[in-house]
Amino acid sequence: MNRAWKWIHFAALALAFVPEPSHAATASQQWCVEARDAPSVIADCTQAIKEDPNFLAGWALRCLAYQSQGYYTAAIADCTQVIVLNPMLYAGYEGRCVAYASQRNYAAAIADCTQAVVLNPNDAESYANRCAAYGNQGNYSAALADCAHAIAINPKKDLAYVARCGIYGNQRNYSAAIADCTQAIKLNPSNDVAYQNRCAIYSGDGNYNAAIADCTQGIALNSRNAATFGNRGFIYLKLGQFDNAITDYGAALKLNSKLAPSLYGRGIAKLKKGDEVGGNADIAAAKAMQPDVADGFVEYGIQPK
């Protein structure tokens, strides 16, 4: 999903639920609504909210701006305030659903996306987001049903194809997964997550050149997606390109130090390069975070020694 401009759509929804003001919008409110980048949205909407705590659009905009910057707890707080101000605004639940999912709180995400589709049964976005949450829970039947529903509502919803691509990939249905991620890219060539997912699928299918090309394109579109660096690092590790693996895993960990697979993979690459101290330290740290982290590597024939 291209979230870069999502909050503009969200604010339009929020404003649609706000009664006509009895007075002209303040300068801060106008700046808040017209801001076109996340830092400006956060700064301008914070000022607007200080002046008028009931300015629903300000909370809605700031929720999604925080979300786009990875500040998920702050996003949840702001989307909650949107819901407090207007419990009938489905977009408040939709926004909070995505923030919860980003924190891997899939049960809460599913509950909020469910409420969003109750309020708006034609909300393809929430069906697609609930599909992804169900998929991350391992409930593939419910996930596939939601993605199919999202696509039926809006055949151009790239998020639904990306989510279904990931589910098919987990089921080792690589041809269906590649078809869905390819369709998502056709619909939205700037969707870096579609490239990231297709990279992982190609890797699982053994097509490493195509996988590296997709991960590289995903990084070109979004150099702050740690998962894409981690995926490419894994491919380099599999191919025995240990220096490249260490570089990519390091980039992933710089963006998110809690990625146990990236720590473990970097540890193996360091060991293969003869760095026993550094390699063993990375592997120990990864196992402390995720005791079963080695399983995903053993499955592909990758072991420390």
Secondary-structure element series: HHHHHHHHHHHHHHHHHH
Question: Overall 3D geometry?
Answer: globular
* CATH structural architecture of the domain at 1-121: Alpha Horseshoe
Q: Give the CA-CA distance, first to last residue.
A: 39 Å
Q: Helical amount among residues, as a percent range? A: over 70%
How many distinct helices? 18
Could you characterize the architecture of this molecule?
- There is one protein chain.
- The protein is mainly alpha-helical.
- The protein has a domain at 1-121: Serine Threonine Protein Phosphatase 5, Tetratricopeptide repeat (Alpha Horseshoe), CATH 1.25.40.10.
- 74% of the residues lie in helices and 0% in strands.
- The protein is built from 18 helices and no strands.
- It has helices at residues 6-16, 27-34, 38-51, 56-68, 72-85, 90-102, 106-119, 124-137, 140-153, 158-170, 174-187, 192-204, 208-221, 226-238, 242-255, 260-272, 276-289, 295-298.
- Helix 4 packs antiparallel against helix 5 and helix 15 packs antiparallel against helix 16 (260-272).
- The longest helix has 14 residues, at 38-51.
- The protein is globular.
- The two termini are 39 Å apart.
- Mean pLDDT is 90; it is low at 1-22.
